[in-house]
Amino acid sequence: MNLPNHVTIIEVGPRDGLQNEKNFVPTDVKINFIQALKRSGIQEMELTSFVSPKWVPQMSDAGDIVQATLGGGRDIVLSPNRKGIDRVYETNCKAVAIFVGVSDQFNKKNINKTTAEALEELAPIITELKERQYFVRACISTAFYCPYQGKVSLVDTINLCKSFANLGVDELSVADTIGMANPREVYDLFSFLKKELPNILITAHFHDTRKMALANVFASLQAGIDRFDTSVGGLGGCPFAPGATGNVATEDVVNMLEKMGISTGVDLSKLMEALDIVEPHISRPIQTGYHTLHKLEQTTQH
Ligand code: HMG
Ligand code: MG
Prior knowledge:
binds 3-hydroxy-3-methylglutaryl-coenzyme A; 43% helix; 12 helices
């Protein structure tokens, strides 16, 4: 088996998780949640996103979140356009994630632009961010399947990844937005990207709609991937990608990896403390494997 000794977890719950919640999670709860996640050993995290508050009201408190939680690791904020970047410049955050889907149809729904239009707007922004020494992450949505278009061409995904690599981004986070990819597809794409783009961080981002996300994590490890976007409690989903459920759960990935002897630096009991903070504000039950077991153990101990 091809396995790394260490895996980096990029926690995306405060962003991917809470952007998709029916109700606005109060700002102070988000802040406590993020601080508790940091205490659990998470070193990289998407804190929030600077998007249009009309499109995604759940993220309208992005400035307050960043001000209250920045520090202690790589804190990343999402931004889709010039207006968002100008808002990021008003903060001390030094890591930005831009996001584009491979599929035009998804992009039109998510950012109101085609893939080519988004690239054209983002190219000078990426150059500027790199000149200002920002860490730049490019999130590549619908890398395998699109909720509107169906199967996405592997060639299109690879070409978009290469375009961002050529623009000088530090990291590509390659996403199975609606949780449709299978481990073979995942292995093939990530093996290819690792070989073609050896000088860039490559991260896998799985949603767990069809319960293949842990298998996809394992297939990615075999392809040489050692960075995963995960979300505590399996929270997550994109408001403009119908049918997608949450991200693969941080606790399930950490539990699997640690059992396999792969370190993550994340303390599972502290991670569950973080989840306890946000759970009362989440509209659906949390049913991840590790969380269910953890609650059962707590009940039998009392
Ligand atoms: P638009 O309507 O075409 O843009 O939206 P616009 O320039 O015409 O602006 C519309 C209004 O929004 C204006 O306000 C702007 O000022 C304002 P008005 O003048 O009407 O009062 N506005 C902004 N305000 C604050 N911050 C901004 C901003 N931009 C415009 N940055 C836009 C285009 C891109 C803004 C919109 O489509 C948008 O915000 N989209 C974001 C959608 C989103 O957040 N999706 C979820 C994140 S991606 C994801 O989850 C996938 C990922 O997890 C990977 C995966 O799983 O695939 C990353
Ligand atoms: Mg996502």
